[in-house]
Amino acid sequence: MSAVGHEIHGHDDHGHHKETFITKYIFSIDHKMIAKQYLLTGVVMGIIGIVMSLLFRMQIAWPEESFTIFKVLLGDKFAPGGVMRNDIYLALVTIHGTIMVFFVLTAGLSGTFSNLLIPLQIGARDMASGFMNMISYWLFFLSSVIMVISLFVEAGPASAGWTIYPPLSALPQAIGGSGAGMTLWLVSMAIFIASSLMGSLNYVVTVINLRTKGMSMTRLPLTIWAFFITAVIGIVSFPVLLSAALLLIFDRSFGTSFFLSDIFIAGDVLHYQGGSPVLFEHLFWFLGHPEVYIVLLPALGITSEIIATNSRKPIFGYRAMIASILAIAFLSTIVWGHHMFVSGMNPFLGSVFTFTTLLIAIPSAVKAFNYITTLWRGNLQMNPAMLFSIGLVSTFITGGLTGIILGDSTLDINVHDTYFVVAHFHLVMGISALYGMFAGIYHWFPKMFGTMMNKNLGYIHFWVTAVCAYGVFFPMHFIGMAGLPRRYYTNSAFPLFDDLADVNVIITMFAIIGAAFQLVFLWNFFYSIFKGKKAPQNPWRSNTLEWTTPVEHIHGNWPGEIPEVYRWPYDYSKPGHDEDFVPQTVPMKPNEEQLHH
Amino acid sequence: MTSLLIVIVLVLLGIAIWQLTKIFDLTQIGTAVNGDSEVANDRDNNVNGYLMFAFLGFIYVFTIYSLVKWGHLALGTPASEHGPQYDNLMTISLVLIFIVQTITQFLLHYFAFKYRGKKGQVAFYYADNDKLEFVWTIIPVIVLAGLILYGLYAWTNIMFVDENKEDTIVVELYAKQFSWEARYAGEDGVLGKANVRYIEGVNTLGVDMSDPNAQDDIQSTELHLPKGKQVIFKFRSQDVLHSAYMPHFRAQMNVVPGMVTQFAFTPTITTEEMRLDPKIMDKVANINKIRSEKSADLIADGGEALSPYTFDYLLLCNKICGASHYNMQMKIVVEDEADFNKWLGEKKTLGAAVKESQASEAPAEAAPAPATEEQEAATVIDSTVVDHK
Ligand code: HEM
Ligand SMILES: [Cu+2]
Ligand SMILES: [Cu+2]
Asked: Where is the chain membrane-spanning (chain A) (predicted)?
């Protein structure tokens, strides 16, 4: 017993075991601590991102009005007299998008739960490389700090949209934010990508090599499948964004012409010749589209696990779920052109991308149907995590369906870059993944902190958020179909759009209420860490391995030997058993029928 | 004012939350105080099950409310030849989405309600059914195949332009931070070559004045289009990405520095005719009502009244291009061919405009200019050729 227990401790046999504050809480190599670090950083970045969205939503609802809160938060320079500057509007939109997509829903979501759950659910004592894991977190932390510092740059932070298309992002003459602000954005993102790659490599290696005895690939919980494939997508696509960022840095600082050509700005002809912004778009979206799934798949994995546990039923179509994850992963790398139907690329390419894009709707539909069937004839335990998981399926359907319009090159012509797109991607990616993150937090909070979150606050949090999310994003479809472009500082330059003003006020009201209720979550979260009721070992009566570890965290996860696995993780309410759950560690009874070896 | 409103709303919300938790807590009396009490019990399942059903109602009601209240905001009668086909495809897709949305949301929330947990209820151990999986793989396949085929048919129709069609005119749309200009090919029907390196004085579009085709080109800050003629747009940008968005014509194409992009459509309704379109008349009346209310407020604050709105087609910029992206627009006038020709005929040609301005400049300055221009001309690439990257 002690031999196994010491495997992982072999390296520090020579030294003392005492952990200092620094090695335990700061430069920790324990995956559970690193997961918590990711989560806290993600929550802080999330607060910044959401507050930014409120600021620019207020500007859109009450254009060019003076607000004290603008003066307080943006300062007199970015909001002279409390009126937001037009380039600062774009800066806020840009940083909001960047933070939400990368810092909250990539690092904050995937980083937290991959780190927490991969070793615990596959039965490993830690990640393959704890040290690299630590570096990965600290690079993420560094990139977050740099991104936040960029907000204080004199001429404003990056303002070219989260897609940072050159030449706008390359030329400080074009917009103030493309000076030092953009440089910091690029540096921050380069570090972020390094962090993400280290994390992903670690996840892949861990899943392949460190599964406990009996944990075959077809006995893995769907969470692990989702994290595993997400990591693979990240490894394939993030380097391409890195190369785009590097080439952009060359164009900006060393006079190369990868993306720029024939430019006359501020009275001067620039020397650039022969580059193409369209090339940048291809490189960006080669990551950008898979990124949507990097954000979404972990949320879907989390949901699969939570819906099965709380339905007290096996997830329906386990193998179809894995197949659809694989299909989505593959297809997601060949659909990027649907962001570029009207970019000026060859229309024939548009046809091809329409085809591949609508194909990806098929595995997505399969997933949705499988979730619904899992609920059918279940015994649904309405824990907050379950509510957020059902909410995810709902917004995933609502948002996913409009993808059929945007993925169709013809229809995209008139709704491209309008609020219709904002509605679509927020529902299908933003809100869905955010729900997945909330679901994960409510579900695994006892595992992370050893205490329970208050369920009633959880219910309030969910129901208000659910109503407000629809209230914010559903009306955006209509103003989008009215032809309202996104990234407009105000719509008052077009009398044509005057009749959209009250819709925009309603949207902003919902946004403010929704954001205010996130305070309920924050309170619940922080209060429960310190004062929450002590968690039982397996509060949700779940089958997976993480609930076989003690509530108190120990290095190496299991005090004794790592448990062996005898069955798949979804034996809920299996006939012939006394309890409505049969943990993976329970050996098969003689003659018991076995699903998935 | 509004800040105050928001503060009040927030305070009220705070009170509401506090009250709600109290109510929820009251329903918990008698349960254990350890961590297990934070796991959903039958009561929670019941309450939230009903709320799931109520939420389904909310989605339906909100959807219907939105359709009734905001449905009319969507763009009305399309003003181009391909427009009706676009709208048709859009309607089909929307109806389909609407049906699927209604059914799937019903199933999801209804099941969440119906199978809410109860003591003693046993879930059905049901892990797989290949037939079902097959059914809901194949149904989307068939439906999507139909949509893809129709979509690609329309796409080919719109994007692959017959440049040799009779009754075609070529117009260059030129974008810069933060305005648009148009260039017409003139009598020869061919646009003169151009590159930003030729920009000088009145030649703001960088047209190569040594090109014979350039002499009769005509420049304008308003876009006039003849009804019933195919217009091939060639887009050029001098600085950053822009996007030429003409929503009433269901037309959009990005404008990319260093390359020429293209889009073509045939306008079918003149501006005057569109102003008489019933949907547009309603819209204009509604907007003017809103504007006059706003004007009343403005005047009360000592400001100026807003001018009344009349309908015009517009070209909007729809790709983030800098601080004033939100106000980069150009008026489009669609008129009968005779009116269009009259308008164009009254415009000065580029050749004449450049000569005029050169004549008024000092001759001493004019002398060295051609030399540098020639040097450059060797390296300058004509950027008016469509080049699909
Ligand atoms: C999970 C949370 C969210 C995610 C992942 C997210 C993501 C994004 C992204 C990627 C953009 C595009 C930025 C760009 O165009 O450069 C964006 C813009 C926007 N976000 Fe969010 N967002 C989230 C939450 C919110 C919330 C709570 C609001 C509240 C109203 C909001 C409102 C908007 C709006 C209106 C825009 C469009 C602005 C424009 O381009 O004109 N977002 N968001
Ligand atoms: Cu995409
Ligand atoms: Cu623009």
From this structure: 38-56, 88-118, 139-165, 185-210, 222-250, 283-304, 316-336, 348-373, 385-407, 419-445, 457-483, 503-526
